[in-house]
Write a structure and sequence with these properties.
CATH architecture: 2-Layer Sandwich
Order of helices and strands: EEHEEHE
Helix content: 10-25%
Strand content: 15-25%
Number of strands: 5
Number of helices: 2
CATH class: Alpha Beta
CATH superfamily: SUI1-like domain
Distance between the termini: 28 Å
């Protein structure tokens, strides 16, 4: 879902309860420092019409930070991809390149699965 289409509404329209108090939505989880991220890199072909993709899983933090990391990885690999459901998807078998980039950028607990 693109950022433009995300709704900030909880679906509440009106309440007749006189003691009702609006609860603010909790802030998104802060992004852990890169040295504490436990990213897992794996290869996947399932439900992709036989095409190979590299998945990066295990990112803890805000969606915007995940999008930024995905953009940097796609740019470094020179391939396409996307960020969906908390995973970064990179086209092709890019496991070695991605692992080297992550280790170079202080993601020390990253590994290939």
């Amino acid at each position: 879902m693109s950022k433009k289409n995300k709704s900030n509404s909880t679906g509440l329209v009106y309440s007749t309860d006189p003691d009702f108090k609006w609860k603010e939505e909790q802030a998104a989880e802060d992004t852990s420092p890169s040295g504490q991220q436990k990213l897992r890199i794996r290869l996947d072909k399932n439900q992709r019409a036989g095409k190979t993709v590299t998945l990066i899983q295990g990112f803890n933090g805000k969606e915007d930070d995940l999008d930024e990391l995905g953009k940097k990885l796609r740019s470094f690999c020179g391939t396409g991809g996307s960020v969906k459901d908390g995973e970064i998807i990179i086209q092709g078998d890019q496991r070695e390149k991605i692992l080297q980039w992550l280790l170079k950028n202080d993601y020390r607990q990253s590994k290939k699965v």
